Amino acid sequence: MHKATIMRLRNVSKVYRSGQIEVRALQGISLDIARGELVSIMGPSGSGKSTLMNILGCLDQATSGEYWLNGTEVGQLTEDQLAWIRCREIGFVFQNYNLLPRTTALENVEMPLVYSKAKGRRRRALEALDAVGLADRARHRPSQLSGGEQQRVAIARALVNEPSILLADEPTGNLDSRTGQEIIAIFQRLNAERGITVVYVTHDQEIARQTRRIIRLQDGRVAGEEPNTPIAAGEPPRLRR
Question: Could you give the number of structural domains in the chain?
Fold first, then answer.
């Protein structure tokens, strides 16, 4: 079955300037990501992976070219519209978790709902923690959680607004291999059971093999794409709605 394109880039370039120095982070990237896909992006350091993720997540805008998200050209959106997309349509998961250290897991997950002034915040945050198997750790602060548990909190926070897209930048980079496999299994199940489009950056070939497509970057360009039959990851608790 043909799936509609949810993210489309056409000839996207990103140039950073500092005085007389010009760095071309992306050079003419064109690619499509379909709704419901599970995709990994690979490439050496400096290949443009994080820059591409920032553009996909509307955290940064291209210097030239077009980026269409859900049929809307992102370059034509206002700051308020971009903020709405970042809050409601896209969930972000980072290598360093980015949790507030003095607040509980529950309060960290609630944070996006506070910004969006959503109702039922406590209930929704508890449901998101329960979905990743951490309901019993809701009152713990990040310092009381393992690295894998902190990343699960970060995933729950990304899920709490029920986004259609999850973007993860090296989500297993600070984790041991077993815990990393458990985190990837959560992404696989979110994709399979909820239809969430998942895109993550990784340096790990074994992690990339657990997605349906691998996009390889080199020097700010797409060096190649390859379809993949994903390998099943570990066995975290089954996701609950």
Answer: 1
